[in-house]
Amino acid sequence: MTVPAAIGRVLPTMNQDGSRNWIRPKPADGAWWHRRRIVAYALMVVFFAIPHIRINGMPAIMLDLPQRHFTILGTTFLPTDTLLLMLLLASAVVSIFLFSALFGRVWCGWACPQTVYMEFIFRPIERLIEGGRSGSLILDKNRSHFHWRRLLKYGVYLVIALFLAHTFLAYFVGVDALERWVRLSPYDHPTPFLVVAATTALIFFDFTYFREQTCLIACPYGRWQSALLDNESLIVTYDAKRGEPRQHGVKNRPASAGDCVACNACVITCPTGIDIRNGLQMECIHCTQCIDACDAIMDQVGKPRGLIRYASLDQLAGKPRHLLRPRVILYPAALLLLLGGFAFALETKAKADVMILRSQAEPFTVEQDGRVANQIRVKIANRSLRDHEYAISILGADSAQVIAPESPLAVKAGDQRTTSVFVLLPASAFSGGRRDIKVRITDGVDYADELPFNLLGPTRSAKSP
User: Is the pLDDT at 465 greater than 50, yes or no?
Assistant: First the structure.
């Protein structure tokens, strides 16, 4: 049974009969390519180095999910820092909106890990091992996944995937813990081992099979373009006024022919398989490879460069460019407001987070001598950049006996500890079953506060035996 061919345009990764169209782009070695390569390798170095960098004695970035500690550039955020985390996340989102309004999909083409690793690690290795301009076409025609060249490529891909997975895990557990786990048996740390194995499998699957479909199918960014871009946004685009009508070849060109020689170099080099001459498309990641390919052809045929270039739709239409427009004003204003609020909240936030909790067992106990004992649990999170010792005292209960086994309580920078304080009062000190006091916490330098607390006791005065 023959499958009917599709009518009209289909996905770049799908043939008309529904089969997978394996895209093997031809690299376009040009000025934009070299710029992107410098940026890509710089980003890789940053990604690999960050887990090893320490700021104020703490990792530059550490996302400790089990302990719910998030360290960013030497500052530790706790789950209680809802406002700070919200402001930071909102600032990142608004930044993406701003850069998209100004420079189009600059993130996708220049900084997205999918593009960076695909175009500057995995595809070059594929071309090196399998041969040809973009991997052996003979292997593709035969669909031979067991050729020794392809098996070698898979082996190299697996090693790179393992390295990337371990680096990724270091952001969550730290390089010290990761180094210990690597030297131990997986039975000693099964959960991290399974996380690395799953991450490695996903990376291997992505760059071996799924590839550009991550950008076309999984990533929603392309579908957001209509909302994030306007006619003044810089995008990678084809100048149809100059290029049309297309005329194949260089010789015997009519005077009415455009500069486009219909060589399809822009299509051959596109990593998502689109034709940029069809206008702005969801699949275009603005990687600029078509610019380099077209400029090289223009040099060969003696035409000026820039048939495909960075430009806005208004520029191509001959309209004057407006640097100031509503979104270019509103986005920076919102970003400045969010970052200012984040800086203010971070600077004015207390250097310690203190929680006063009751006993997890009985609310109070009556001792043999008739006194009422309350257990107060004090939880202190040190938010400062250095170690501190926190003195704990009770105010408003002069007749009380206070037993504080750990006062002062030593808490390292960025860490948190919990201790217990026992307060014993005669039953007559309670009114209606409660006694209001204050718990004073101070480190003598950065933090001092008095927190209200009510002790619980019997509703009637206890008689002495």
Answer: no
Is there a contact between 402 and 422 (Cβ–Cβ < 8 Å)? yes
Provide the token pair at 245. 């009508």
User: Cis peptide leading into 245, omega within 30 of 0?
Assistant: yes
Asked if 171 contacts 69 with a C-beta cutoff of 8 angstroms, the reply is no
pTM: 0.80
Give the position of tokens 């929680």: 355
Furthest C-alpha separation in the chain = 119
DSSP, res 320: P
Query: What are the angstrom distances between the C-alpha of 3 and each of 53, 304, 371, 396?
Result: 56, 45, 89, 86
Q: Output the CA–CA distances (angstroms, integers) from residue 338 to 70, 140, 260, in the order listed.
A: 20, 51, 47
> Residue for token digits 């105010």?
395
pLDDT of residue 160: 97
By three-state DSSP, how is residue 305 classified?
Answer: coil
Work out the mean pLDDT of the chain and round it to a whole number.
87
Domains by residue range for the chain, with CATH? 31-80+112-211 (no CATH), 352-456 (2.60.40.10)
Q: Cα(93)–Cα(109) distance, rounded to whole angstroms? A: 18
Q: What DSSP element (H or E) covers 90?
A: helix 82-103
Give the H/E segment covering residue 355: strand 352-358
Beta strands in 2-84 (DSSP E): 54-55, 58-59, 61-64, 69-72, 75-77
- Asked which of 51-65, 193-207, 419-433, 440-454 is least confident by mean pLDDT, the reply is 51-65
Helix 123-130 × helix 148-173 angle, to 10°: 160
Q: Which two three-digit tokens encode residue 284?
A: 């275009």
